[in-house]
């Protein structure tokens, strides 16, 4: 019981040592990134607010100047002002009162100077406020040039703001109306510029600063204030500036940093509390799990399972260990089943009538291992071979020994599987046929042969019986070809002779009957020849061998040369034509029959257009012969490949009715399939066949 708290503390310390350092490093990196991001974000926000204040200040300035100009224009058109320029008595009687009444009308709290000037720019009358701009104007002012232009003027310099509007009488400039404000009165005029956080001011070409609101940036060293400026349109260059001290931005940033550090500290505290709680909740179930695992490890019984209790992670761990124990128990059972299956297989092999062997490479092939089936197959017990008294080469018939030696030597030289059939002497003195499949094993000098020997005597007897039957069938075919065709030729010949002898004495019906008899004998002869060819497929043709399939197509087209020339047909050969394992004679005859049918069964007044396409398919090689001929009536496709089955009746197309049946037998002899596709009568047709592709085939 005392070990549990110690294990708990040890586990907690290990968790803290492994988790806390990378966690703190991660928090530091995240904090540094947040600080940098916060600084950039705050700077962008301040710059955005400066731009907004700059836009608002420019709008207010434009509105204020426009308002002043409108008031000045209104005064310049007043009758009292006109009379003041012309009549001295009216000038001093009415204008002072007019100027006094203007205060507060448009200037607000600002104290403005009003003055009436003559056409030379000299002051005629003003409200004479002390400290204001006095006429004539200073040298840095356009003066005469402006007077000659006779236009309005808005001017800003170190003396303040000046507006001059011409007073026109009957279209001529007779004087000027002046409105002016010193710099200290400008903030009172533009009250909307007051801002709680920014300084707003104007600067002219003479670099005279006119602070309109706020003085936080005064006395701040260069670079200590964040400023945005904009040049304004007008008769003199004016620059509108908005600024805020960097110290104010730094204070706001420091406040955000303090908030962020507090948040990170809270996160660290919560993580530490979470680690402590997780360690306490996990340590005890892990300790119980360890005790249970120790009991299982010390016990030979693997059927015991761990308790799946505690937190989710501990339950998953216990479940995974229990699954491993289940698999271990299953593998233990499977091993017992495998041993039992192996014993059954060994018994089956030992009792089967075959020989499984391992022997030396060189003749006479002394056995190192031979199955118990040796006694069943050749009559000698396996011990005779293993004790060295008998070698396998001693049983091979002398006439076959050299052929066996050559086949084994070739397989050993190539390091590949070899197969051979030969005869051996049985213990009772009779000989029997066997089939051997063997392969060399091992490397270097430590090499041997392994293989299987099977008794094929019954199969060989069946093959001999089949050969005898084929010989009888060939003899029958010869009889059909010779003995049956000879009477048909005699009948056909005498009928032809009789027709010539009677000549004019036969009427039309008799001539027609004679022609039908002669034609019937000729067709019977063609059918006998076709049957003879049908019976010879697979027996009298060339043996199977690898050959380029395109050569068979070209050879078939050579044989069909006269038919092509007579019909004017065109044959196009496209696609893939690999090497195939086939009988050259039969493959050529197959293609010749299919292409010949496409030429024969053509529509009247239509040139045959035939496309022969070769293509690889997953199971082998496919050929399609497509034509534009008479097509096949619906539902008649299944009858085409039967012997003596003709879809098109009458004498329009010659034929024995065996051609397509011969094609089917050739394809089946090669292990393939054949078929036809047609859209209907008059729509042409496509005959196709597929042959299996062996491993040695290629392009």
Structure description:
It is built from 16 helices and 21 strands. The strands form five sheets. The protein has a five-stranded antiparallel beta sheet with strand order 2-1-5-4-3. The protein has about 700 residues and is of the alpha+beta class.
Give a count of the beta strands, DSSP E runs of length 2 or more: 21
Helix content: 40-55%
Gross morphology is elongated
User: Biggest sheet: strands, sense, closure?
Assistant: 5 strands, antiparallel
Task: Briefly note the structural class of the backbone.
Answer: alpha+beta
Task: Using brief descriptors, characterize the structure shown.
alpha+beta, elongated, 699 residues, disordered N terminus, five-stranded antiparallel beta sheet, 16 helices
Quick structural gist:
The chain is α+β, with helices and mostly antiparallel strands and 699 residues long. It has helices at residues 3-76, 79-86, 88-101, 144-149, 186-189, 246-298, 312-351, 373-378, 382-386, 398-414, 457-502, 508-536, 549-559, 561-567, 584-600, 659-669, and strands at 113-118, 123-126, 153-157, 160-169, 172-181, 199-204, 209-213, 225-232, 238-245, 354-359, 367-370, 418-425, 431-443, 446-455, 544-548, 570-575, 579-583, 609-617, 620-627, 673-678, 685-692.
What is the topological layout?
Blueprint: H1 3-76, H2 79-86, H3 88-101, E1 113-118, E2 123-126, H4 144-149, E3 153-157, E4 160-169, E5 172-181, H5 186-189, E6 199-204, E7 209-213, E8 225-232, E9 238-245, H6 246-298, H7 312-351, E10 354-359, E11 367-370, H8 373-378, H9 382-386, H10 398-414, E12 418-425, E13 431-443, E14 446-455, H11 457-502, H12 508-536, E15 544-548, H13 549-559, H14 561-567, E16 570-575, E17 579-583, H15 584-600, E18 609-617, E19 620-627, H16 659-669, E20 673-678, E21 685-692
Parallel strand pairs: 16-18
Antiparallel strand pairs: 1-2, 1-5, 3-4, 4-5, 6-7, 6-9, 8-9, 10-11, 10-14, 12-13, 13-14, 15-17, 18-19, 19-21, 20-21
Helix pairs in contact: 1-6, 2-3, 11-12, 13-15, 15-16
């Amino acid at each position: 019981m005392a070990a549990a708290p110690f294990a708990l503390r040890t586990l907690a310390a290990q968790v803290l040592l492994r988790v806390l350092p990378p966690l703190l490093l991660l928090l530091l990196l995240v904090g540094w990134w947040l600080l940098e991001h916060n600084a950039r974000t705050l700077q962008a926000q301040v710059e955005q607010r400066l731009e907004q204040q700059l836009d608002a200040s420019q709008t207010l300035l434009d509105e204020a100047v426009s308002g002043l100009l409108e008031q000045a224009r209104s005064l310049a058109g007043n009758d009292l002002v006109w009379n003041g320029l012309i009549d001295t008595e009216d000038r001093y009687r009415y204008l002072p009162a007019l100027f006094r009444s203007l205060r507060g009308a448009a200037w607000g709290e600002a104290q403005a100077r009003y003055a009436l000037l003559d056409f030379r720019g000299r002051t005629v009358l003003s409200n004479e406020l002390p400290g204001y701009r006095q006429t004539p104007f200073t040298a840095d002012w356009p003066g005469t040039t402006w007077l000659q232009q006779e236009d309005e003027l808005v001017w800003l310099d170190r003396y303040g703001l000046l507006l001059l509007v011409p007073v026109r009488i009957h279209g001529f400039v007779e004087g000027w109306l002046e409105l002016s404000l010193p710099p200290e009165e400008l903030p009172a005029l533009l009250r909307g510029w007051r801002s709680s956080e920014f300084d707003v001011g104007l600067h002219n070409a003479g670099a005279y600063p006119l602070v309109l609101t706020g003085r936080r940036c005064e006395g701040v060293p260069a670079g200590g204030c964040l400023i945005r400026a904009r040049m304004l349109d007008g008769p003199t260059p004016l620059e509108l500036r908005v600024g805020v001290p960097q110290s104010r931005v730094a204070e706001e940033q420091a406040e955000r940093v303090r908030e962020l550090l507090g948040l990170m500290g809270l996160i660290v505290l919560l993580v530490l509390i979470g680690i402590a709680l997780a360690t306490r909740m996990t340590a005890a179930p892990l300790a119980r799990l360890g005790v249970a695992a120790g009991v299982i490890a010390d016990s030979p019984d693997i059927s015991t399972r761990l308790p799946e209790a505690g937190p989710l992670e501990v339950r998953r761990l216990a479940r995974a260990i229990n699954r491993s124990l289940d698999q271990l128990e299953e593998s233990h059972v499977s091993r017992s089943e495998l041993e039992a299956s192996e014993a059954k297989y060994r018994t089956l092999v030992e009792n089967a009538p075959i020989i499984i062997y391992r022997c030396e490479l060189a003749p006479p092939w002394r056995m190192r291992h031979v199955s118990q089936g040796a006694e069943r197959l050749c009559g000698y017990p396996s011990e005779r071979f293993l004790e060295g008294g008998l070698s396998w080469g001693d049983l091979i018939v002398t006439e076959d020994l050299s052929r066996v030696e050559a086949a084994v030597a070739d397989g050993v030289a190539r390091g590949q599987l070899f197969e051979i059939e030969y005869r051996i002497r049985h213990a009772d003195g009779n000989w029997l046929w066997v089939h051997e499949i063997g392969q060399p094993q091992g490397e270097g000098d430590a090499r041997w042969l392994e293989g299987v020997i099977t008794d094929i005597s019954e199969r060989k007897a069946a093959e001999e019986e089949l050969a005898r039957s084929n010989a009888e069938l060939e003899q029958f075919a010869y009889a059909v070809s010779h003995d049956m065709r000879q009477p048909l030729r005699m009948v056909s010949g005498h009928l032809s002779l009789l027709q010539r002898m009677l000549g004019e004495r036969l009427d039309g019906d008799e001539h027609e009957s004679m022609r039908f008899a002669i034609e019937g004998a000729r067709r019977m002869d063609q059918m006998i020849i076709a049957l003879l060819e049908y019976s010879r497929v697979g027996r009298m043709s060339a043996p199977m061998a690898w050959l380029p399939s395109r050569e068979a197509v070209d050879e078939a087209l050579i044989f069909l040369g006269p038919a092509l020339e007579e019909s004017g047909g065109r044959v196009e050969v496209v696609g893939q034509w690999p090497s195939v394992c086939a009988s050259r004679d039969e493959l050529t005859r197959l293609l010749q029959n299919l292409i010949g049918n496409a030429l024969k069964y053509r529509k009247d007044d239509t040139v045959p257009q035939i496309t022969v396409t070769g293509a690889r398919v997953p199971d082998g090689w496919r050929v399609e012969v497509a034509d534009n001929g008479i097509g096949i009536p619906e539902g008649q496709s299944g009858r085409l490949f039967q012997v003596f089955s003709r879809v098109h009746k009458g004498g329009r197309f010659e034929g024995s009715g065996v051609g397509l049946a011969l094609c089917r037998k050739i394809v089946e002899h090669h292990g393939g399939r054949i078929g036809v596709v047609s859209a209907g009568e008059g729509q042409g047709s496509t005959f196709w066949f597929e042959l299996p592709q062996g491993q040695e085939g290629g392009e």
